[in-house]
Amino acid sequence: MPEWLEVVWRTMFAVVVLFFLTKLLGKRQVSQLSFFEYITGITIGSLAAYISLDTEKTWHLGIIALVVWVGFSLGIEFLQIKSKKIRDFIDFKSTVLIKDGKILEDNMKKERLTTDELLAELRKKDVFKVADVEFAIMESDGMINVLLTRENQPLTPKHLGVKVAPEQETQAVIMDGKIMDEPLDTLGLTRAWLDGELGKLEVTAENVYLGQVDSYGELTVDLYTDSVELPQPQDKPQLYALLKKCEADLEMFGLSTNNEKAKQMYEQCSADLQALLTKLKPFIQS
């Protein structure tokens, strides 16, 4: 066999072996690497290169070394799962960098982190003032997580004491011009409904690169041909979606209040609006 062809064959073989062994190590290998995973990635890559280019008869020793290293890595990961002390020793402990709006200089020196680097990481979190930070910690993978002081946190329904109903995940019902039946079933919709919505937009599924349906049953599409202008959504379907949201909000208000009179009022208004929607649905969804 020619030497160049042998290198091609061994490279393809190394790629296949590397793929399956890396898959065995799990998803963490392709996400944010820890210290030990960084070493593992470099070593496995070097061994794979050795298997590809070594034209001597000892190339099979690279396969053995690769299998041994992956087995060793799996053993280390198993020990990390079983023992926190081993996790802290191998991947390092998390380090507090800011507490109560004050930078901990000793911990900064320990992590060999400069003030400029810390400020840059804070800006990535949309934080521009150290005094606004209640707590900042460097994780074992080097990422810095930030908790703002309570007065600087975004206002949420929980802060207002309001309970919100869970919102259903937006589903991709068309992908690469093909209709996805499973997401349609999740939403309780059918292909006939989807064909009807596509008809309103004057497009076919084959022309759609991506089609999504939100929790209110509204279909939005992205076409292969970006120059094509889609018809604008009609006012009546938008009105139906708005009324449905109002009905859900009234029901939510009824669940969140402790005042019995207010609860009865919200529940009655929600029921009346739901009955009205049932009557108007054939007219405002057409």
Structure description:
The relative contact order is 0.06. Helices cover 54% and strands 13% of the residues. It is flat, with a radius of gyration of 29 Å. By secondary structure, it is an alpha+beta fold. The protein has helices at residues 3-25, 35-53, 60-82, 84-91, 105-110, 115-124, 181-187, 191-201, 235-256, 260-284; strands spanning 95-99, 102-103, 133-138, 144-148, 171-175, 178-179, 208-213, 219-223.
Write the topology of this structure.
Layout: H1 3-25, H2 35-53, H3 60-82, H4 84-91, E1 95-99, E2 102-103, H5 105-110, H6 115-124, E3 133-138, E4 144-148, E5 171-175, E6 178-179, H7 181-187, H8 191-201, E7 208-213, E8 219-223, H9 235-256, H10 260-284
Helix pairs in contact: 1-2, 1-3, 2-3, 3-4, 9-10
Q: TL;DR?
A:
With 286 residues, the protein is of the alpha+beta class. It has helices spanning 3-25, 35-53, 60-82, 84-91, 105-110, 115-124, 181-187, 191-201, 235-256, 260-284, and strands at 95-99, 102-103, 133-138, 144-148, 171-175, 178-179, 208-213, 219-223. Helix 1 packs parallel to helix 3 (60-82).
